[in-house]
Design brief:
The protein is mainly alpha-helical. The protein has one domain (about 5-80). The protein is about 55% helix and about 10% strand. It contains 3 helices and 2 strands, in the order ααββα. It has helices spanning about 5-10, 15-40, 60-80, and strands spanning about 45-50, 50-55. It has a two-stranded antiparallel ribbon. Strand 1 and strand 2 (about 50-55) form a beta hairpin. The longest helix has 25 residues, at about 15-40. It starts with a helix and ends in a 20-residue tail after the last helix. The model has no long low-confidence stretch (mean pLDDT about 90).
């Protein structure tokens, strides 16, 4: 078990801490659902640790670098059946964060 969990299990107010964590998790999930309901493909944003992080639009130098990397990477990934290649506005949804 992790050190944090070990310490929580020793706490005399464990039930209150669990309740506080559950409330924090539920609030974060509400914010995440709101993020997904309001975000559209024209806005570059991520949901990280309960907060929405907005990014500025990309500029030519960044766009060209991304294009060059993808151009080189895509044939290798396809030839070796490693999955998919995506960049820029592709949103990936993980357990807690959306990048």
């Amino acid at each position: 078990m992790s050190t944090v969990v070990d310490e929580l299990l020793k706490a005399p107010n464990l039930r209150e801490l669990i309740t506080e964590l559950e409330e924090a998790w539920e609030n974060e999930q509400r914010r995440r659902h709101t993020f997904w309901a309001e975000i559209d493909e024209n806005v570059k944003a991520e949901f990280i640790l309960g907060e929405i992080v907005y990014h500025s639009p990309i500029y030519r130098r960044h766009w060209m670098a991304s294009t060059n990397i993808t151009t080189e990477l895509l044939p290798y990934v396809r030839a070796n059946k490693l999955g998919r290649v995506a960049y820029e506005k592709v949103m990936i949804r993980l357990t807690r964060n959306d990048y």
